[in-house]
Amino acid sequence: MNAEWRWDFAIEILPQMLLATLNTILAAGIGYAIAAIVGLLFLLGQRTPIKIVNMINREIVEFIRSTPLLIQLFFVYFVLPQFGITLSAWVCGMITIGLHFGTYLSEVYRGALEGVPKTQWEACRALNFSTFYTYRKIVLPQAFPIAIPGMGNYLVGIFKDTPLLSTIGVAELFHAATAVGGYHYRYLEPYTIVGIIFLTLSIPAAIWIRKIEKNVNLAQGKIKKEQL
Amino acid sequence: MSYFAFLSEHGPTMLLGTVTTVKVLICSTILYVIISLIFGLMRLSKNPIIQGTATAYIEFFRGTSLLVQLFWFYYVLPFFGLSLEAFTAGVVAIGMNFGAYGAEIVRGGILAVPKGQWEGAFALNFTPAKRMRKIIIPQIFPIILPPAANLTVELLKATALVALVTVVDLTFEAKQINSITWLSAQCFGTALLIYYIISRFFLVPILRWLEVLAARKVGKEKI
Question: Helix-strand-coil percent breakdown of chain B, rounded to 5?
């Protein structure tokens, strides 16, 4: 076993890795879409005026947030079949990621809604706008920019947690690396390539999110151009 | 098999795993706090080499997945003649990964210390090192502890990953028991519950207590 980096081997496995990267991106995208919707559901549970619903909602969110995603994946993957529901690894992975990050996104949404100044609500009240109209025309357009940085961060977060899916056998990038590494008994190149692919995707994404955040703050007048 | 029978048979094994999980948690928390403080300070250095090193470190560890780093430490480092034990590899990977996140929190905390404090230290002719040590650093704790507490809960969850590099922790035991008994609901359910109990009834109260303590120390009564 030598430590030398073998270019021929790296180039040989590169196409396979890039193909698996598509799966990773797909998984992150689907997972994020589900999480965004689940987050809305949790937000709804939090804002309903029924106390008991709020309480149950909070406990569920608290529970999901403070337990590891890995065991949640195992739970969904191994326990559902016991109740006669057999889902593929892909579906299980997407459901779990959606639920797990949905709880985080619900917090982002909540923070954004609370970030809209109270006077805005009062003004809508004074103008006799309906609740729906208030949300649609006044509150949401102001809350959305506040939510963007948080939402972006969790998109990158989900992307970086997709390797966990390999533990239940979803054929994404990390799974491919492990398979290739096991086949040739060379782990140096596959895992390093995985790291490089992650870096090349997540750093531009992070920079892009920071830029959006700056633009949003600029548009809202929170910071001035000279400060940039 | 009733749940109680399951617990009496496999409970001790799971508790043993829990002890390992707590060990990983404590060791990697210590490591990540040290790394965050060092790199948070380096990030604010005026020397471009020091600052660049810190930025590269932070971007690298935040940009790649923890699982990838963990596997890299455990499976790739031996190629370079550096064999780490599974436990050490796990602690180092988690500590370095969360240290990168923590460094950003520390940096934010230092920048959030009111300007008057910096100017006061400057007016009193403190050396930069003394200014940091005596004036600025003691004041960052009430600012950084709330986000650091969130990060530490995340760290507890991340310790589950060390099971994948063969550290015999709670997750590993749960998986093991599952493969023997196929009582998936019981073993993974118990594991989830144990993580929840550690976080909700031990980790979070300790962190809240630290927050109150830090706030009191600088004379800002909280709550």
Answer: 85, 0, 15
